[in-house]
Design a protein that fits this description.
heterodimer, A: 267 residues, six-stranded mixed β-sheet, four-stranded antiparallel β-sheet, globular, B: 287 residues, 2 domains, 12 strands, 26% helix, 4Fe-4S (chain B), iron (chain B), S-adenosyl-L-methionine (chain B), Alpha-D-ribose 1-methylphosphonate 5-phosphate C-P lyase (chain B), metal-binding (chain B)
């Protein structure tokens, strides 16, 4: 077997008006229980899709299936014209560390806590074949700057960082290989509101500047109001309503969505 | 029980067959860790149970066995394993590297170059090079399968970030024939260049972890590094105080409590051979 060139990324042949991610009838069951059922949507380049719903509504199951952490029972996922579920595991894992990114709710799940911040950011670069220490470090400094972490913290371990910094570090670590599709699972969960606001601001800037497509799962309607272009509301594993974010939030049609929107505390 | 109650080289023939199959598979796929049904041996784990089983499976009555521990022929581990095979296999033993057909080693490769036909058996405590980076065995196997070795460089990156250079000085990971990343057992990285292109068969046995892997003769084993921080074999910057050797791996020996110390070859056979030829170091006496 010959070694692949580590910097040879998949050809980007997609026409701009083609969806980047197409999901058809995605179903995942846990025994007799439904994780998520009959989910279909399309995600276009540069688009942010929010998925909201209460706990246990299947949001995280859906996201895990999309990101390849779980294998769905039924349905099709195609990314950039390629069938993700039919892909070999080598290709899929390669995709998930170059073209895709996954931001965990708890930064401890997405970071290596025993490795310095620079090592965390550099890991994906080394995984795709970067072997020049100086260049890896340069990229790490650049990305720490972009997520507003001081360059002199590069050799500190994430355990010495605050929760908000850990979350920003996780974002830097994920975006360093310039992915096109980012999955986020409650990226602002567990952070206080002022830190949340800064993180959302940062995310919005990155999404706009890099033209990222994002699938963001949250139960916080304020987050989707700020970030998401389109919104999917889930309940009991099924999508009950979807549409433009403002439209869904300002004029909810489904009874559950109405309940969800009216449950938000007005300060 | 008498010594005659044992089969030749302690293990029964079926066990040796099983181990030989694992060895052959390891040789066929250089650097790949082959699982095998490791047996209880009459010594504790960590004393070379894996190496002893590999040696037992390789020995034939005409062999001459050499056993070294940190390069020395006369340390506890080396002496007890050598005696073990003298009693259970009745094979000849030697301390001379060049005369041995099978050499079991812990933490060193002999200084004297090995030749075709020799077998070097390593005792391996932890065969998985990714173990301290990724604790899940299922995941490390997957990483080997898919050649995902980026994490290994994360470790080297951390070394440079923290110490200014690659500080891993033993068990330095190598990539075998451009495919598997392998832990060469805790040999000093000084010995890493000798792994590659070695005419002897190199077998690695990990008893507790139940893995055997191998480097066939003349196999390429490249030490991992960065382009701007290339691999260097390192040793103490001294000559041997007994034989004056400049290019052998040295042990530092504290001689008193006022800062006195001496550096001696860790390979005792190499050092003795040089002294017999008349080489004398700083503190040595002429033979």
């Amino acid at each position: 077997m010959t070694l692949q060139d580590p910097f040879e990324f998949p050809q980007r042949t997609r026409a701009p008006d083609q969806p980047l991610l197409t999901v058809e009838n995605l179903t995942k069951r846990y025994g007799p229980r439904i994780g998520c059922a009959d989910v279909s949507f399309e995600l276009y380049p540069g688009e942010v899709l929010g998925i909201v719903g209460e706990s246990g509504s299947g949001k995280s199951t859906l996201l895990s299936c999309l990101a390849g952490h779980h294998c769905p029972d039924l349905g099709r996922i195609s990314y950039d014209g390629r069938d993700v579920l039919a892909m070999s595991e080598t290709d899929r894992r390669r995709l998930s560390r170059t073209d895709w990114a996954y931001v965990h709710q708890n930064p401890r799940d997405g970071l290596r806590m025993g490795v310095s911040a620079g090592g965390n950011v550099g890991e994906r670069l080394m995984a795709v074949g970067a072997r020049h220490y100086g260049q890896i470090r340069g990229r790490a400094v650049d990305w720490l700057g972009r997520v507003e972490i001081a360059a002199d913290r590069i050799d500190d371990r994430p355990s010495a960082f605050s929760g908000g910094m850990q979350q920003r570090l996780q974002i830097a670590r994920n975006l360093v290989t310039s992915p096109r599709l980012v999955f986020m699972d409650e990226p602002t969960g567990g952070l206080d509101v002022s830190v949340q606001a800064r993180l959302l601001d940062l995310l919005r800037g990155l999404v706009r500047d890099l033209g990222l497509s994002v699938v963001i799962v949250t139960h916080d309607l304020a987050v989707v109001r700020l970030l998401a272009h389109r919104l999917m509301v889930m309940k009991g594993g099924r999508v009950v309503e979807q549409g433009l974010t403002d439209q869904v939030l300002d004029d909810p049609q489904h009874a559950y969505t109405q309940l969800l929107v009216s449950s938000v505390l007005q300060v | 029980m008498t010594d005659q109650a044992y089969n030749f080289a302690y293990l029964d023939e079926q066990t040796k067959r099983m181990i030989r199959r694992a060895i052959l598979k390891g040789i066929a796929v250089p650097g790949y860790q082959v699982p095998f049904a490791s047996r209880e041996m009459p010594m504790p784990y960590g004393w070379g149970t894996g190496g002893v089983q590999v040696t037992a499976a390789c020995l034939v009555p005409g062999d001459r066995l050499k056993v070294i521990d940190q390069g020395a022929d006369d340390t506890t581990n080396a002496v007890s394993i050598r005696r073990f095979f003298q009693r259970t296999a009745g094979v000849g033993v030697t301390e001379a590297t060049a005369e041995a057909t099978v050499i079991q080693t812990r933490h060193r490769i002999p200084e004297t170059p090995l030749a075709e036909g020799q077998i070097l058996v390593y005792q391996v405590p932890i065969p998985e090079p990714l173990r301290f980076l990724e604790p899940r065995e299922t995941e490390t196997r997957k990483m080997h399968e898919l050649e995902e070795y980026g994490l290994m460089h994360v470790k080297l990156y951390e070394d440079i970030a923290r110490h200014g250079q690659i500080a891993t000085s033993y068990a330095y990971p190598v990539k075998v024939e451009g495919r598997y990343v392998m832990d060469p057992s805790p040999i000093p990285r000084f010995d890493n260049p000798k792994l590659s292109g070695n005419p002897a068969i190199q077998l690695f046995g990990a008893g507790r972890e139940q893995r055997i892997y191998a480097l066939p003769p003349w196999t390429e084993a490249v030490s991992l590094d960065f382009e701007d921080h290339p691999f260097h074999a390192t040793k103490a910057p001294h000559d041997c105080d007994l034989c004056g050797a400049k290019h052998s791996y040295l042990d530092e020996v504290i001689t008193d409590d006022t800062g006195g110390r001496m550096f001696v070859c860790s390979d005792t056979d190499f050092c003795a051979g040089r002294r017999a030829k008349g080489h004398v170091g700083r503190l040595g006496e002429a033979a």
